[in-house]
Amino acid sequence: MPNGTANTKGTIRVLQLYPREMNIYGDWGNVLVLKQRLSWHGYTPEILEHNAGDPFPSDVDLIIGGGGQDSGQLVIQEDLQALAPTLRGLAEENLPMLLICGLYQLFGNFFRTQNGSVIPGIGVLDLETHGGEKRLIGNVVATSPEFGDIHGYENHSGQTFLGPELAPLATVTKGEGNNATDEHEGARYRNIVASYLHGSLLPKNPAIADFLIRKAVERKFGSFDPGVIDDSLAEAARRHAATRPR
Length: 246
Ligand code: GLN
Description:
Blueprint: E1 11-17, H1 28-40, E2 44-50, E3 62-65, H2 70-92, E4 97-100, H3 101-106, E5 110-112, E6 118-120, E7 127-144, E8 148-162, E9 170-174, E10 184-185, E11 187-189, E12 192-195, H4 201-204, H5 206-221, H6 232-243
Parallel strand pairs: 1-2, 1-3, 3-4, 4-12, 5-7
Antiparallel strand pairs: 5-6, 7-8, 7-9, 9-10, 11-12
Bound molecules: glutamine.
The site of glutamine has 12 residues, from α2, α3 and β8.
């Protein structure tokens, strides 16, 4: 189906968590990519938001969460804790999720910030995060067995360590990723992709966008009927990103 053709294949509901507080360094672009690629694949995207205090919507097919300042993480933590059983249930039911930086941290067990406060996580991912003195900032390239080279930008003080059973998303070849010591970037669990990378992530990494879309569509409709997408601009952006200094 050519780009831009109206949907004939069904609706996919994409929920963005806490777009007011958890949405920095271009994370909003991830939502735009999912919206655009869903329609290029012939599906109708429906974009929903959940902010603190809102009722959690029903029939969500894909969840997306971005990064935020430590202060923003504190603002949303109570509401996130209230959603914990729902989000844990959806994760175990293989709902696809993309979690970037600040929400990646809070889907883990806890984030001990640099000033010593502990923000509890919701334990979807077995990981913990410790605020460090040195911020990890700059362009990143990381290699993943599923997605090939992943390009993005990191800016975080929290350093994340995965539990023994949790797989990293990728191994860094430029930059730091989860922490300054083990070369892991992000985490992969069921249909969750978690990453420190902003930029935004999905415009330069359409393979991850299509993984999330495929899982959402298969889960809802049984099979995925992809469209043909011209990714030459994304490929050019990837080639350019690979040449950028740290
Ligand atoms: N506040 C967190 C940290 O600095 C997350 C930052 C982010 O989302 N970029 O570690």
